[in-house]
Design goal:
Length: 595
């Protein structure tokens, strides 16, 4: 039928006229409590947020504005074309406008316009790039800053820079169908990653999953999908991490997710608190395991230079079997479960502390190399310092300490103490449980070897066990304790110095946050103590008392009437004084001095 839409519209106009409004109904679909604040903090943490919704364009725009994902100062682009050619032209137009805006704000010249745009090429963070214009401008040389382009644009663009808050993208489901095709999906992804916020409206469940898959495969980032309905299941299952919200739309999303939340605002605590703590704990856990096992293993390698690389082991076989199970596992386990750099409330108030995890600052190739080198140096010190120390030493019974059994026990004991103290230097959150785990592990090492090297074990193994009495013989010599102290100083003092230098001259974001939290706690404690002192000073006693004397006092004199003045009715000459007797004057004087 030709001109069907126009004819249907004419039919509506003919039928729907002279109507009387009887009533109206509406559906309230407001945001949950805390959603705008949650999204704002997640954005400050450097997390890119894409909204994939089935609502129409205007509703999606209002949702973005109400949850502070979109702002009035944002450069917002809308793609709502309904055919392939129009979508292609719109994507290219949006890309060109982004290039012009970038060149205008950051004084850069993008020579290859067809090359994929990337903020890393200019050293700019897309989440906070409106704050980076001045540092980027200052990073240029003097000649570059005084060229004609900079001189003519620095004043005119300053106001725009202060108001510009990034790019935003709104795209409809029909346009998204063409944008996700093989021909345009990379350009769409390029534009989307350049934006601070992306809102896809009228998106089907399949399109939601396709968008997540596009980001996962090409950006190589960790993706998290959160939803509360059955139409979000495919998206939740496709993402690396799926979060379901238990609400009024059923439990399909919850059953398909990795984590279940009661409300959207709890996502903030899941990521900024528990997620960040988990990353720090796992990073320390892995670094420590590499370090302690390299230090433990390489001592056998150094022994090979003296044993001709035979199959001779340095340690007792029982110690080799129990090193990772009993003597180094409990402290690092407590660290991996309970350690935290700052409190939960402080983490929520400083969302920018989430960025070190995104940049892999605590566990990367550099950190791994440092752990390996640290383990190698530790093994060298632990092996060669005791070797040089006890090579000519003797025990109290006159026997030499330079036998393999005594040397192996010395190295093993120093190894357990050093690696556990290194772990103690790594932890931030000291608790009574960690104190127990640390000191109990060291004490257990001595008790274990006292029992293992006793005569009872010797009777069981008869003459095949050569470690009988080694513990008592080694610990009774001053040479062992001097070697232990010297090794601890050599290995731990540089660690203290490195941490002091880093905290003093190169503090990280977390170091500053920890110091800030410490100062706040001290100020709070001082303020509370001051207020308690003020309250104690202002506090008045509930009861009062009277003092009684056993002497007669001045009661009779007061009641006798001698202290009363003359009657006010009698006239007094103005030129004469009052007639007071000498006895009355004496009474007044004696009463005054008595008081």
């Amino acid at each position: 039928m030709e001109k069907r839409d126009e004819k249907v519209k004419d039919a509506y106009e003919e039928i729907e006229k002279n109507l009387i409004l009887i009533g109206a109904t509406g559906i309230e679909d407001k945001l949950q409590d805390g959603v705008p604040q949650c999204i704002e903090r997640l954005a400050c943490a450097g997390i890119k947020i894409w909204v994939l919704t089935g609502d129409k364009l205007e509703t999606a725009r209002n949702i973005g504005l109400s949850c502070r994902l979109l702002t009035n100062d944002m450069e917002l682009y809308v793609i709502e074309e309904e055919n392939e050619n129009a979508v292609e032209r719109k994507l290219q137009e949006v890309r060109n406008e982004m290039i012009n805006k970038i060149e205008q704000l950051f004084y850069v010249c993008i020579e290859d316009k067809n090359k994929r745009l990337d903020w890393k090429d200019w050293g700019i963070d897309v989440m906070k790039f409106h704050q980076y214009r001045k540092p980027y401008y200052q990073s240029h040389s003097e000649a570059q800053r005084l060229n004609g382009h900079a001189m003519t644009t620095i004043d005119t663009n300053q106001q725009d820079d202060e108001e510009f808050e990034g790019f935003g993208l709104l795209i409809t489901g029909q346009a998204l169908t063409f944008a996700l095709s093989e021909k345009f999906k990379m350009k769409f992804l390029e534009i989307g990653t350049m934006c601070k916020a992306v809102v896809c409206c009228r998106a089907t469940p399949l399109q939601k999953a396709q968008v997540v898959d596009l980001v996962m495969k090409n950006e190589r980032k960790i993706t998290l999908a959160i939803g509360d309905g059955a139409n979000d299941v495919s998206m939740i299952q496709k993402a690396h991490i799926g979060v379901g919200i238990s609400g009024q739309e059923g439990r399909q999303a919850v059953l398909a997710s990795d984590y279940s939340l009661g409300q959207f605002r709890f996502l903030e605590r899941l990521l900024l608190v528990h997620g960040r703590w988990s990353y720090l704990r796992i990073s320390k856990f892995l670094r420590y395991f590499f370090y302690k096992n390299i230090a433990f293993t390489l001592c056998h390698f150094w022994l090979g230079f003296f044993s001709g690389f035979s199959a001779q082991t340095l340690y007792d076989p029982f110690f080799i079997a129990t090193y990772n199970v009993f003597f180094t596992s409990l402290p690092v386990l407590v660290l991996g479960v309970f350690d935290q750099d700052i409190s939960a409330d402080h983490s929520l108030s400083k969302p920018h502390l989430y960025t070190p995890g995104q940049n892999d600052e605590f566990f990367n190739k550099k950190v791994f190399a440092e752990s390996v080198i640290h383990g190698i140096l530790t093994s060298c010190i632990i092996f060669f310092v005791p070797y040089l120390s006890i090579s000519n030493a003797t025990r109290s019974d006159g026997m030499t300490l330079a036998d393999l059994q005594s040397f192996g026990f010395t190295v093993a004991t120093i190894m357990v103490i050093i690696v556990n103290l290194e772990n103690a230097l790594e932890i931030w959150y000291w608790t009574s449980l960690y104190h127990f785990a640390l000191w109990a592990t060291i004490v257990t090492h001595f008790l274990f070897h006292f029992a293992l090297y006793s005569t009872i074990i010797g009777k069981i193994f008869k003459n095949n066990y050569k470690y009988i009495g080694v513990t008592q013989a080694v610990l009774s010599t001053s040479n062992f304790w001097f070697t232990l102290l010297l090794t601890c100083v050599i290995l731990l003092l540089p660690v203290f110095g490195r941490e002091f230098f880093r905290m003093r001259f190169m503090p990280t974001k977390i170091d500053r946050a920890r110091l800030n939290q410490k100062f706040r706690m001290e100020e709070k404690a001082a303020f509370v103590a001051h207020m308690q002192y003020k309250l104690r000073q202002r506090k008045r006693p509930i009861y009062s008392g009277y003092a009684y004397s056993q002497e007669e006092g001045w009661g009779r004199l007061i009641t006798s009437g001698l202290m009363q003045s003359k009657s006010s009715s009698s006239p007094r000459p103005s030129s004469q004084t009052t007639n007071v007797s000498t006895s009355e004057i004496l009474v007044y004087m004696s009463l005054f001095f008595h008081l």
